[in-house]
Structure formats: structure tokens, C-alpha cells
Specification:
- By secondary structure, the protein is of the alpha/beta class.
- The chain contains 6 helices and 9 strands.
- Strands 3-4-2-1-7-8-9 form a 7-stranded parallel β-sheet, sandwiched between helices. A two-stranded antiparallel ribbon has the order 5-6.
- β5 and β6 form a beta hairpin.
- α3 packs parallel to α4.
- It is globular.
Length: 188
């Protein structure tokens, strides 16, 4: 079964990692790509512009009640947890921070895994805490695919290590090997 959505979580060092992954995604990618990043900034529009300058796909801020669109990179807004409803629409929440973060990678991955099941590909990149590990475990429990950046090359290895310890991975790869795999999973 081919992927129906790619969800990428990152924190410290994430901007540089995303700028190595997004340019190499196939411009004809038929599935939505959702990025949940701890940016520390309230201005996601600037982050979207920076990512789009090197992305093969358009980059947009995820907006509540809008459909996750194939061929678009949707970035979680600052200050909200991003959720995915069963009809494929985004929802926002101001619930308590999870692992000191809002948006939380765990919150999005768990909601997306519940909504999409085995069609979800979860990707954990560099980061300095354990956010994303529980969510990636849920992705795998629902039959989705888990990809984790090789911790030895991550700018901050804590997040990939936590994901590997709690969830394991179907693929543990260097950054440059992640886009070709995503393209194969989404275009097959």
C-alpha cells in the first residue's frame, strides 16, 4: 500500500535538516507533507518562505478546517497543537504543552496515525528532546512506516535516539537517503 501522508517532526537543527530533505522530494508528489517543528518563533510565515525557497513543493502554513493537500508541504502553526481529523482536515488545539512544546510532534503523529492508519509515513529528524517518540510508536502500531534520521549525523541526537528507543524504526537513514525513500513510498 502506498503512503497517503508524510509527517516530519524536528526541533533543534530542524531548519537545516528540512532544507536538505525538501528540495529532493519529487515535485509530483501526490500526498501531503506535514512538518511539525519547534521553531521558537511566532512567525511561521517566515519559516514557510525560507523552506519554500529551497523546496521542490509549495510550502504553506496549516490552517484549521482546511484539507491536507497532496503535493503541498503544510507547516504546523506556532502556539497550537496541530491535529488531523478523520476527514483529512486540520484542526488546532491550545491544550497544554506536550514535552514542553506546542505544537507537539507527538500530538500530530498520534492524531494522524488514528486518522490515516497504515497510509502514514512518520519521519523524525534532529531535535533536543523526546517529542515524536510516542507518536512514532503510534504510527507503527497502526501499520504506518517509521523513518528516523541516523542519530550520529543529527545536529541534536536526542530526538532520533528517543524515537529509536521507544518506537524503533522501519528505516534509520542519513538525511540524504530519506527523500529518495519518501519518493518511492509515495509514488508506488
Amino acid at each position: 500500500m502506498s503512503a497517503r501522508m508524510v509527517a516530519i517532526g524536528c526541533s533543534a537543527g530542524g531548519m537545516q535538516a528540512l532544507r536538505r530533505v525538501l528540495p529532493h522530494l519529487d515535485p509530483g508528489l501526490p500526498v501531503p507533507v506535514v512538518v511539525v517543528s519547534h521553531t521558537g518563533s511566532e512567525d511561521v510565515a517566515t519559516l514557510c518562505e525560507l523552506l519554500e525557497s529551497s523546496s521542490a513543493l509549495p510550502v504553506r502554513e496549516a490552517v484549521e478546517r482546511t484539507q491536507a493537500t497532496g503535493g503541498v508541504v503544510h507547516v504546523a502553526p506556532s502556539g497550537y497543537h496541530l491535529l488531523l481529523e478523520h476527514d483529512g482536515r486540520f484542526a488546532l488545539s491550545v491544550d497544554e504543552r506536550v514535552t514542553f512544546a506546542r505544537p507537539s510532534i507527538d500530538v500530530f503523529l498520534e492524531a494522524a496515525a488514528d486518522a490515516i492508519g497504515s497510509g502514514l509515513v512518520g519521519v523524525i529528524l534532529t531535535g533536543a528532546n523526546s517529542d515524536g517518540a510516542k507518536g512514532l510508536r503510534r504510527v507503527r502500531l497502526h501499520g504506518g512506516i517509521a523513518i528516523v534520521q541516523e542519530p550520529s549525523e543529527a545536529q541534536a541526537a536526542a530526538m532520533p535516539i528517543a524515537a529509536l528507543e521507544m518506537a524503533g524504526a522501519d528505516h534509520c537513514l542519513r538525511l540524504d537517503d530519506i527523500p529518495p525513500l519518501l519518493n518511492r513510498l509515495c509514488l508506488s
